[in-house]
Amino acid sequence: MPKIRDKVRRESWRSKSAWAAVFIVLGLLALQTVRVHAFPDDRVSRQSQRQYWAQVPISTSRGDVRDRNGVPLAISVPAVSFFIDPTFWQPASSDALIPFFGKPVSDKFSRSLSGRFHWVERKVPAATAEKLIEKNVPGLFTIRESQRKYPHGELASQVIGFCDIDGSGLSGVEREWNSVLFSPPQTRFFVRNARGNLLDFIGSNAGTLQVGAGSIQLTLDSKIQQIVEWRLREGAAAAGTNWGAGICVDPRTGEIIAMASFPQIDLNDRASFGKTESLRNNAISRVYEPGSTFKPIFLGIAKEMGVAPQSEKFSCKGRLAIAGGTIRDVSTHGVLDQEGLLIKSCNTGMATIGNRVNQHKAYGMLRQFGFGIKSDIEISGEEEGLLRSPGEWLGITKANVAIGQGFAVTPLQLAMGISAIANGGELLKPYIIAEVRNANGKIIHQGRKRVRNAVLNTVTCAWIRDALAKTVSIGTGKAARVEGVDLAGKTGTAQIAMGGGYTKGRYVSSFVGFWPHSDPEYVLLIVLGEPSGGRYYGGEIAAPIFKAIVEDMSRLSMTASLKT
User: Fold this and answer.
1) What would the pLDDT profile of 401-443 be if each residue is shown by its tens digit?
2) Closest Cα partner for 249 from 55, 520, 440?
3) H-type helices in 423-495, by residue range?
4) Rounded to an integer, what distance in angstroms lies between the CA atom of residue 83 and that of residue 294?
5) Helix (H) or strand (E) holding 38
6) Could you confirm whether domain 53-218 is CATH 3.90.1310.10?
7) Which residues contact 407 (CB under 8 A, 6 or more apart)?
8) Is 522 helix (H, G, I), strand (E, B) or coil?
9) 500-502-504 Cα angle (round to 5)
10) Where exactly are the structural domains of the chain?
11) DSSP 356
């Protein structure tokens, strides 16, 4: 028995010794692991600092925007973005970057920055970037991205709109159709080897980024758009106006052929965005009182309501007292028939007719014409105008509305209202998007003619068109006449309302017309806000711009015919 007990003791001691040895070894390994991680060798630290990874979201290509003929208006091009790794960055070398970034990078970045990735400059043009890359500045690295470019700079700038630095639309078509044009940022993983070289974990750093966006074709004709912009800018500068707008519409379909706004911006130069007003698309977001360009529409409404007998004569004595107020004309016109009211742009005669209408019916018909309502054109920024409810049509209001004052419209609303007269009585929905395709090239939206309301009968429209043709040939619109072109049109000059009254010396001048007058193919509206050059009548400053545009368009059409 004693021998058995001694043997058991020896076996137990051996077992305990073995486990003790195991625990001692594990303890030593644990202590060594802690020492290595918490107190690494300087050589290991330096080596590890040269190796790291970064996850960076970068912008990819947006879809193209083109005009009706396929001319590119907005595209995406390769660009290079620069970032620094403070571990490798040498502030002393920053002076060499001044020609590229405009200031020493050391003003913003230093080796004391935390982390390993900091943007320096986003989306530098490839040609400039290559020159900088050749300098091989320590700690300055590159990522290939995509940058939004506008091949024609100012052309249709407020219509197209612009994007932020990450390629998301902020205004115009770019914003309204961002869901189609936008391609989500691509996440790129980067690692750096022991030599400090950048390696793209997914693919080549210079590789082509995937395009996951659709494309848009506009109804705009870039050549006509250019003509309207040139002439509008030229005329607005000569008249010293604060703002201007020009719209060309196909009255048969509702297509917007040109939509111009003054002042313009260069979409490739963010410095031109300085003035907020220059970002506004005046054609859809500027609200103003239309003045006499509205008279053809109101006279059509009055005739439809039966309060303007065809045979009636009006005695224009230059002023008319109505409901405690006074309507004035520039001069006396004598006895006029209805046609003469438009030809001479007689305020007192129109006010006489306006005072007869039932305000509830007139309000309803104005709404049918699209006033006080957004047209839902497919770009962002549209205003609905201002049309007071019938209960607010007190005193002289009806007479004021008849001459185009006391309410406010956008240029687009007025252009579509005149288009309804031009096409025989149909108010059409304007559209500026001809076609939208998704990333797979499938058409997901197509613009087409859509009738919003039937507003006037064809007989009334034909009569108004004839009267407006005479307005150009012998009336207030003579400055818009073009040899060989069968034009019809109307001048407009409206005072600007402020603080419950009209401000002396502040006007909005305009001219609207269409051609050929018997079967119109184009409606064109020119509006100039607050001219300061001493002249302010629409017939003096807006009609000549209209004329110049029609002449240019006629030459363009003749050139195209000769080529075919």
Assistant:
1) 999 999 999 999 999 999 999 999 999 999 999 999 998 899 9
2) 520
3) 458-474
4) 58
5) helix 2-38
6) yes
7) 289, 366, 371, 372, 385, 386, 387, 388, 401
8) strand
9) 145
10) 53-218, 222-269+284-563
11) T
